Task: structure prediction
Amino acid sequence: MTGKRVRITGTVQGVGFRPFVYNLAQQFQIKGTVRNDANGVDICAAGPETVEFIEALHASPPPLAIVTSFTVEDAEVAGTPFTILESDGRGQKRADIGIDAAVCEDCLRELFDPQDRRYLYPFINCTHCGPRYTIIRGLPYDRASTSMAPFPLCPQCRVEYETPSDRRFHAQGNCCADCGPRYNDLPRAVRTLQEGGIVVIKGIGGYHLACNAADGHAVQRLRERKHRDEKPFALMVSGLAGLTVNDTEARLLQGVERPILLLDTDRPGPVAPGLCTLGVMLPYAPVHHLLFRLGGFERLVMTSGNRMSEPMAVTDGTRVLGNIADFVLEHDREIVTRNDDSVVRVMAGAPVFLRRARGFAPAPVPVDFDADGLVGCGAMLKNALAIGRGQQVVLSQHIGDLSNEETYESLARTAEHLFHTLGVTPRTAVCDLHPDYLSTRFAESLGLPVIRIQHHLAHACACLAENSVKDAIAVVYDGAGHGTDGHTWGGEIFALRKGQPSRERHLAYMPMPGGDACVEHPLRLAAAVLYSKGITLKDMDPVYSMLEANVNIHYTSGMGRLFDAAAALLGLCTHQTFEGQAPMLLESAANAGTFDGYDIPPFEPAALLEALYRDPSSAPVRAARFQNTLVQEAADAVLEIAARLNLGAVALTGGCFQNKRLLEGLIQKLQDRILVLRHRRVPANDGGIAFGQIVATQIKEMS
Ligand code: ZN
Ligand code: ZN
Ligand code: FE
Result:
């Protein structure tokens, strides 16, 4: 009979689309079929109410679906009762990989219902919730191509799976205590936490280290065993009670993505020493809800389970983390893909990614060119990988700092997995200009043509592309990146016009005696910069003799380095133990009621550090003045360039825009004068570089 064929693409597999279509078809008495194919969902429909059926389909897809295209054409349709057909795995793959979603309200109700057959079962899930990306080996998304394959459905689960009216109809991850994965000893984990012990927990995208956050000794013990003296821990809290959050923050915390949200706080205490923010998330896996309910906790430390600088562990919890923990809570479902917790902060009214991973990756970002086969390999720190597929770029989950074998392995595995799952044939590798980054080595190892992109140009392109803007100014305030002149850049203002980038302004170069030694000991950098002003600091003779002899001096225009030097000069951080520590401490120390800055020549680190040095005010006041000065000089430069080059937009990007004062200050100064572009889907830090690298292949080299 004559009917319609509907093709839907986007994130439409593994989100309950087929059962949803089936139930809708029953409602409208539609004949025909639905099936997953490599492009998405393919529906054939016929009957008197076909138009209404298609309208309903279009108007309200299932909650986890992201529809990117919806096409309807005439077709000949078999007049048989509506059925769900086997998936068609042939052809080029274009379906998206679903995200790992937090357990839904319906499943939670069952989890704590003594009458329900899944009462207290920690792997409860349905078509609208549960893991996807972390268990998928390939598309189309079927149980056989996930790490649920070794768990055959029991008769009862099978009935649910096959009953169209059931909410677990065709739920690929469906399982129960009789047939599904199991934890080794949940009651023991609860007891250990109650007794102040440390528990390693195998979860959705990896292992966590947990302890009762209300127990100061337990937190201290975790710090000691993890050899982590100062880096902040994330907290998992039982609910929103006791938190001060605005509507945007509450929505983010409760969303299916369940990121760690950085909240402003006056008293972070031992969990995040010296900082003005606290990382908080709500329970997302059923096991988290069980731990809170059975143990009566309010807050648990829930930090990534990794050894020093290695990525989060995904297998062998006992071997990798057993020496840190008093008990290891294991389960027997394989984690196919590592996926750490995402970290988000709300700034100027909108969420900003500090780490983009679980819940968000690998959702694609649309671009306006054919990116097929382009592979962005990212930078050194906060590495993530980007893969072009048609007019989309799939940005991988956060992979980490490529400083060791494990992380490099993780990069290579993620690449392999995504090429295979997305059905992309890699064509061209795109990497950073820096010859020694392991991501550059990785790009060279692929045996493909290699395109090298200047680091900060990649930042700029990422921000422009996600805002669909071509010509703009870009303020790129960042840590470090290899410049086209061989120096290290990072305090840059570019202009992009008709695909031609130019470097309009930059921080004057600062000498770094001993190179990276200045990052760990930022007072050395402050001393080296101030030396040109005739100012000498105590105990810095080795620095001065290096300057005099002019040996082993690197030069940088990095804004992150200027923050380091300022933090050191203010006595806030003289020994940096993790990346970004000094800038975070400076931001945290800054007095919120100080609005003035220093009247000095712009883009001159020596002048700014001298002003800080000579200012007799308190450290919080000087920290605020330092940031205010940077905001004012950037705003002035942007408006000058905009007028001179006739540009109407400015992008704010680079790791320094994780600083709330800087981002909000600059938006406030500029938004009435020029269109301000900010990151929304992609991190401003190096987590967004891989995406920007792919975009930057479409423009000319820096002039
Ligand atoms: Zn559910
Ligand atoms: Zn079962
Ligand atoms: Fe960067």
About this structure: Residues 72 and 210 are 50 Å apart (CA to CA). The first strand starts at residue 2 and ends at 11. DSSP finds 21 helices and 27 strands in the chain. The longest helix spans residues 619-645.
